[in-house]
Amino acid sequence: MCRLILATGRFDAGDILDAAVDMSCGRTADHDGPTNVHPNGWGAVWRQHDAPHGLAVHRDVRPLGESAEDSPIRGVETDFLAVHARHATLPRNQGLRCTHPLERGGAYPWYFMHNGFLPTVHQLLGMAESEFDSGEYFDYIVPRDTRELDEASTLRLLAAIPQGGSSGNAIAVSPDHAYVIHWTTPGTAAQRYFRMHTVTTERFRVVASEVVPSLAPPEQWRPLEPGLLLRVPLAPATDPVLS
After folding, report:
1. How far apart are CA 216 and CA 14, in angstroms?
2. Model-level pTM greater than 0.90?
3. What's the Cα-to-Cα distance from 125 to each of 89, 141, 145, 186, rounded to whole Å?
4. 235 pLDDT exceeds 70?
């Protein structure tokens, strides 16, 4: 299980990184889940005009709390940043190959971050068994050659996932848009653990796996409604906001 945070607007990247560190180390944990510490690597994707396709990426297999200062993020000036801190559900799925954001390259790349365990989604891909559920979920929920996600279609795909998993919470990023998928399998235990929260100020909006008081007072945060696809436009001429 993992922690996610996305920021858009005018913000200090170092503040968002610190918020991700706090979540990864359990400092902001206030939920019913079994996992407070997320030590199995981390990664980030942000908008950067001189990067390929306008998106820069960082991955590190070390715990976020031990390696945040070795990343370039604290000095970044950007209007979009997403960070993922990982707790590997299966010990075999560790290392750089499994460190988010997962990436699909090509002429139109996608980056993907997932919080949850979906060991049955491989069935919908025609696979005999699951190898890495987050990678399979990426291939399923963002089909190849896709350039834009549609909320109705995405929710239909989520509803078709066979029972046996937990959450499909995710951040998917393309050159033109980023998306927050907020969805948990009906009947899943630890509903509070998987409930994401958002806060909007005059300068920025943040969506995160936990309420982070360092970014805004707790009373200003609100939980996201279940079963949502939120879109962040990343066109170069826009000031991105969640719609």
Report:
1. 15
2. yes
3. 21, 11, 16, 21
4. no
